[in-house]
Design a protein that fits this description.
The protein has no helices and ten strands. With 114 residues, it is mostly beta strands. It starts with a strand and ends with a strand. 27% of the residues are buried.
Length: 114
Amino acid sequence: QVQLVESGGGLAQPGGSLRLSCAASGFTFSNYGMTWARRAPGKGLEWVSGIWADGSDTYYEDSVKGRFTISRDNAKNTVYLQMNNLKPEDTAVYYCKAPQFPSWGQGTQVTVSM
């Protein structure tokens, strides 16, 4: 079955950086686009970024453009989210997802605070 395991979250100061990873298994990773989404406290799920199966194209939600970078290593079945210049409003649980499958991982908490 499809499994997604996110890691790399933690506490960062405003302006700081974190790199999230998502290890995928149970499907042919290199055949599928991948996305990152987040859920902030008291808010709904928000799509953050996406990347094509071969990594040739990427997409970002407006509030993270220029600060976040999505990438993938198909040899390692892993997708990454490099987050720079973090802001308090980036505080959320971050999830990766293959849109074609219903499975979600457990998420990784990102907290941006002084």
